[in-house]
Specification:
- By secondary structure, the chain is an alpha/beta fold.
- The chain has one domain: UDP-N-acetylmuramoyl-L-alanine:D-glutamate ligase, CATH 3.40.1190.
- Helices cover 39% and strands 22% of the residues.
- The strands form two sheets. Strands 3-2-1-4-5-6 form a six-stranded mixed sheet. A three-stranded antiparallel sheet has the order 7-8-9, sandwiched between helices.
- Helix 1 crosses helix 7.
Length: 269
């Protein structure tokens, strides 16, 4: 009897379908995995921004996690939007209770539209409770600056920020270089055990980048669940998101920033 590779996302819902759990499930499916979800918040959201957030009660977040992990289990978990310290503590505790070892943390604080998605008092809770159990964290530029207190403008700044993230207790991290205006965009992978590595990909001239952060982190989780190392998962996920952005650049959806094309590998056949 065959077995699915089971990947769980614990994150917020994007009513527009481009980010959040919708992007995660699409990514898991595109990469041949079985996707499951725990919804931590509902957002009224589209390609132009977030107009409302409704947080799920912590105990119901816990009930969802228990329902999935007590029956189906998970080969890897992606953690996204957690808006309150109470939810953060519950998620951390249940991950330890079920002995989940492969965890990708996307510490969602600010959407690309600039909308704030996290309570101020939740940042310390993320660092204290989730950094130590995560295999890798994948903040965007704004989130990295918030977490480290550093201004990032150069590669040297990225390296300093990566080192600061490690000093805060995470095992490995990606510092994203999408702010560079060069033809090659550098991302920094940094790890407690193996030092750091620069990953460079061609810049794609498009504004259709809604959901890129969610998609990258969920792709890393999928590849980890499939048995790859953290670094190899990052490399594979970077290739996947780059190709999804390139394909999504050809489409128009909504009045704002369109999402990436998660199923480019199927649609282009």
């Amino acid at each position: 009897m065959k077995k699915y590779t089971r990947i769980l996302t614990i994150a917020g819902s994007d009513s527009g379908g481009g980010a959040g759990i919708q992007a995660d499930i699409k990514t898991f499916s595109a990469l041949g995995c079985y996707g499951m979800s725990v919804i931590t918040a509902l957002t009224a959201q589209n390609t132009q921004g977030v107009t409302g957030i409704y947080s799920v009660e912590p105990e119901f977040v816990k009930a969802q996690i228990n329902a999935v992990l007590s029956d189906i289990g998970a080969d890897a978990v992606k953690i996204g939007m957690l808006s309150t310290p109470e939810v953060i503590k519950i998620v951390a505790a249940t991950m330890q209770e079920y002995k989940i070892k492969k965890i990708v943390l996307d510490p969602v604080m600010v959407a690309k539209s600039g909308d704030k998605l996290l309570q101020d008092n939740a940042i310390e809770a993320i660092i204290e409770h989730l950094f130590p159990i995560a295999s890798i964290i994948t903040p965007n530029l704004s989130e990295t600056q918030i977490l480290t207190g550093l201004t990032i403008m150069t590669r040297d700044d990225m390296l300093k920020a990566g080192q600061k993230l490690l000093s805060l207790g995470c095992k490995s991290a990606i510092v994203k270089g999408s702010f560079f205006r060069d033809d090659l965009l550098p991302d920094l992978f940094i790890c407690q055990d193996s030092g750091h590595m620069w990953l460079e990909f061609d810049r794609i001239d498009t504004i259709n980048n809604h959901g890129t952060g969610c998609t990258l982190s969920s792709a890393i989780a999928a590849y980890m669940g499939l048995g790859n190392s953290v670094l190899e998962s990052v490399k594979l996920a970077k290739k996947y998101i780059t190709e999804a952005i390139a394909s999504g650049a050809k489409y128009k959806l909504g009045k704002g920033k369109s999402p990436v094309n998660h199923f480019y590998n199927l649609w282009n056949k």
